[in-house]
Amino acid sequence: MSVLRSLESKIAGLVEGTFSRAFRSEVRPVELARKLAREMEEHKSSSLSRTYVPNDYRVFLSPRDRERFAEYEDALAAELAGYLLEHARRERLTLLSRPSVEFETDARLGLGEFGIQTRLAAPEPERRRSGAADDVGSTMIYGAEGEPVGQLEDRPSRPPERPLLLFDGKRLVVGPAGVTLGRSRQCDVVLSDPNVSRQHAEIRPRGPSWVLTDLGSTNGSLLNGRRIDAPEVVRPGDEIELGTSLITFELE
Fold first, then answer.
1. What is the pLDDT of residues 63-95, one digit of tens each?
2. CB contact set of 126 (below 8 Å; sequence gap of 6+)
3. How far is CA 79 from the centre of its chain?
């Protein structure tokens, strides 16, 4: 069994029945492991006899993705750190200490995106003795397809435009994490329509765009009169049909 396959099996065991539901967001643990190893390789520094790599890793997630990781975040971080340790040993790379992985939230990231920041951190006693600063790298963003899409530091601190939903004479501002729509009172947007499922659809940020996703509803979701089978980007003026409810998406 490959190291990545073994990691996937361990994580699946950690979260048991919640595994597939939790990772519907497209951020997959195995993809995180691959990109963490890539960032380790990208930030190597060589001396006469050794090749040093970062030992401290921060993974930045969108608010919605972080929420879905919350129940087993610590266990997942431990598994990813163990994978990095094994990767370093296999590639004969030198670590100043056992790798650590921490998760943080950043509203500049869209659903399915994640950022990774690396740091070469000396052990605490040595850092106090030398007074040297840690070598902190930039935060690389990886998109839903696993490809690098830029640096988090280059993202604006807040979106230049706010998304709006117009329906039944109401004007609802969508927050940075997006919204769920359905009949359930647990949804962000409650639709009193018997043709709408309890949790019918959601609109979430993905990079600079907003994406509509059907949540396995009974009657499906339509975008501009066409039923969607996969997440689709919504644009100003687009009409979303859930049951008999008509919602217009706008930006301001």
1. 777 877 777 788 889 989 999 999 999 999 999
2. none
3. 18
Is pTM, for the whole model, over 0.70?
Answer: no
Residues making up the chain, counted from first to last: 252
The segment with the largest mean pLDDT, out of 32-36, 44-48, 193-197, 206-210, is 193-197
Radius of gyration of the chain (CA): 21
Instruction: Specify the amino acid at residue 111.
Output: L
- Among 96, 92, 85, 91, residue whose Cα is nearest residue 120: 96
- For 59-86, letters b (16+ CB in 10 Å) and e give bbbbbbbbebbeebbeebbebbbbbbee
12-18: long-range pairs with CB below 8 Å, 24+:
14/72, 14/75, 14/76, 14/79, 15/71, 15/72, 18/71
Please calculate the CA angle 197-70-104 and round it to the nearest 5 degrees: 120
